[in-house]
Amino acid sequence: MIQMLWPSTIISMNPATGETLAEVPIGTPEDIHQAVARAWAAFPAWAERRYAERGRLILAARQYILDRLEEIVEVTYTETGKPRTEALSSDVMAVLDLMTYYAKYTEKLLRSERIWLGKYSIMGRSSYVNYKPLGVIGIISPWNFPFAIPMGEVVMALMIGNTVVLKPSEYTPLVGLKIGEIFQAVGLPEGVLNVVPGDGTTGAALAEAKVKKIFFTGSVATGRKVMMAAAKNLTPVVLELGGKDPMIVCRDADVDVAASAAVWGAFANAGQICASIERCYVDQAIADEFITKVVEKTQRLRQGPPERVDTDIGSLSTERQLQVVEEQVGDAIVRGATVLCGGDRNRELGGYYFQPTVLTDVDHSFSIMREETFGPVLPLMTFKTEEEAIRLANDSPYGLTASVWTTDIARGKRMAAQLQAGTIMINECTYTHALPQTPWGGVKQSGVGRTHSKWGLMELVELEHVHVNRMARTKDPWWYGYSRQLYEVLVDFSRTFTSPSWVDQLKAIPAVLRGQRLKKY
Ligand code: NAD
Predict the structure, then answer these.
(1) What residue ranges of the chain have pLDDT lower than 70?
(2) From ligand 1's centre to the CA of 149, what distance in Å?
(3) Confidence (pLDDT) at 330
(4) What pairs with residue 217 in β-bridges?
């Protein structure tokens, strides 16, 4: 968490204790301007390197992280208040795997591809696409996974041959600076990665800078501002925004497994995951058993200091987040929600701790069922039919992930087909951001574009189409030399060549030959 000392510094603090960790300068628009200039200067040489060379550097950075695992885990949990185990599993371990994947496979995923031209190939034509680096990429990242989120995008961008300006969250500047330090230590050339810590003003300057793409992860409200700022230069954006992710528990689900999943999916990272389970719909036939188990499992969670390896839930990362959670839970209670456990700050611990909370007797008129909470709260509703569950799950402005819990996989797939989300998981939840092979991104207000996977790489490349005509000594029939005969050839062409029928297309051959014989100039 951070305290602002207007105008030039931010103070990094441990949200679990209130202890000051460091004072960091806020990057100015001029700092951003210079960083972008450095990144452009470094781009040509970096883009020219072979994938294997870039991959070696990524793997060297990976080894550097492994050699300093505890140090990186520590800075991550100290600045966020998340449990040490989660700093390791969700931030650092996820990144180590991602680095291996992109170091090994980026070249293969971005191999040139031939385009099937059908009948044009008979005319000696062929086409292929190349994927080339774009240039400078601006990355603006949040505090909830301060290591994993920017690192994923940095690694993808660098592997392709792009250079990067990264603006980490004002709540986690030390983790952001650590990312820069890692790459510097392994010899990444000057200017290829530029970390500029700062606040919203620094991010706004980057969104307006002359970069080729903005990768933004954060709230819907800021995402909208970023998109508008980037539009000034027609800079395309990828926006990874908030969620209100539903979990549907069918009557044939393994109740114990689903209850464990609900508790982990709702409370991991103190609920501050864009893909946290924020709404749970359970078939009323199993609701009593399921809810009893959820409450029992929640009551077993140990909330405590982030540094302890047996802490399950740490503190929230920011005071603002604590206030949002308090407001939404308070509103639900006033409107008649039943608090099955939790429901308040954890005052024994100090810091920004909120107790893991399970609520029932809620409906879609409550803010807790409509707005992103981003805290350790699991509101539960029951349903009678599959259709009702799907209608409730889709009744949201968000669409990041959704999950269906059932032992009947065919049913799961049938329901998945009707759910509105960027990722739908059957008997899984929340975690696929950690799978570098799979695309990540939302529908509706949860975002624009994708990150991770080959589709995420596609957001970071310039697509170059190369077209070849092997008939180097002939002029095309549609070139100048317009005449009555050419017109008739083209009428013939319109009837035959463009027809969906292969038989008709074959009938175009005489017209093609006639067209070739026409005089061109
Ligand atoms: P935020 O929108 O407050 O800030 C995100 C980043 O934007 C920060 O670096 C901030 O300094 C910067 N910023 C602020 N104002 C800006 C402006 N005007 N122009 C440019 N940049 C600006 O979000 P947050 O509180 O850091 O993160 C929490 C949100 O992020 C939640 O809504 C969560 O769901 C979302 N999130 C989404 C994903 C995803 O993959 N979809 C992942 C993690 C977090």
Answers:
(1) 1-7
(2) 11
(3) 98
(4) 240
